[in-house]
Amino acid sequence: LEKQGKRRVRIVTLNPEMLMMGVKDPQLFVALQSADLVVPDGIGVVWALRRTGVKQQQRVTGIDLVEKVIARQTNGLRIYLLGGKPGVVEVAALNLVRRWPAVKVAGSYHGYFPPEENQKIIQDINQVRPDLLLVGMGVPRQEIWLHSHWQALEASVGIGVGGLFDVWAGRVKRAPKIMRNMGLEWVYRAWKKPERCKRL
Q1: Could you give the residue ranges of the DSSP H alpha helices within 54-117?
Q2: Which of 7-16, 110-119, 151-160, 191-200 has the lowest mean pLDDT?
Q3: Which of 72, 122, 150, 179 has the fewest CB atoms found within 10 Å of its own CB?
Q4: What does pTM read for this prediction?
Q5: Structural domain boundaries, residue 154
Q6: How far apart are alpha carbons 75 and 124 in whole angstroms?
């Protein structure tokens, strides 16, 4: 985050499911295409890149990316959490600070809000001007929301994080580390939530 200086960065962690949805959803496609940084979050994306001649790309999940960024900060990184169910995001925020005491949760808001509350939420975020804005509202809503409101938001870095708040709140477990290292976390997710397969 320090290296970005005053530049604001909107990040997309791209997986095959998101890519396929983007083909059918023009709003999502634009949100993906216009991102400042796209990180391959899915072994399928890495394989596709290698087939096009990009050899050095490695899979980096959204959770791993966010947690590595947070772990490296020692100067009171200000984070805003937007998304998750009411009550869940608050627990996630508490556990976040317990795990990384140097971090400051500047604010949080659940993801179950109507469009009329967009301006209220934007104002809440802009009052604290977070270094890192985490939006966990699921694909494609989180990517479209960030893209649509990015120019109005006063956050240094914004990233869609899917179900990260459920993980931090202890409601959902990640795949075993051996599966993550082999790039098979998607198999674990499909086993836990078979309906994900239907979306592809």
Answers
A1: 62-72, 88-99
A2: 191-200
A3: 72
A4: 0.85
A5: 8-198
A6: 22
Nearest to 138 by CA among 36, 15, 8, 10: 15
Count of the separate structural domains present in the chain: 1
How many angstroms separate the Cα of 68 from the Cα of each of 9, 56, 111, 173? 17, 20, 24, 18
Residues 141-165, mean pLDDT to the nearest whole number:
98
- In this structure, is residue 1 part of a structural domain? no
Q: Which residues have a Cβ under 8 Å from the Cβ of 11 and sit 6 or more positions away?
A: 35, 36, 37, 38, 39, 65, 157, 158, 159, 160
CATH number at residue 139: 3.40.50
Phi, psi of 109 (to 5 degrees): -155, 135
| Residue 2 forms part of a structural domain | no
Taking the C-alpha atoms of residue 65 and residue 13, their distance in angstroms, rounded to an integer, is 9
In a domain, 159, yes or no: yes
CB-count exposure of residue 33 (10 Å: 0-12, 13-18, 19+): exposed
**Closest C-alpha among 138, 130, 140 to residue 93:** 130
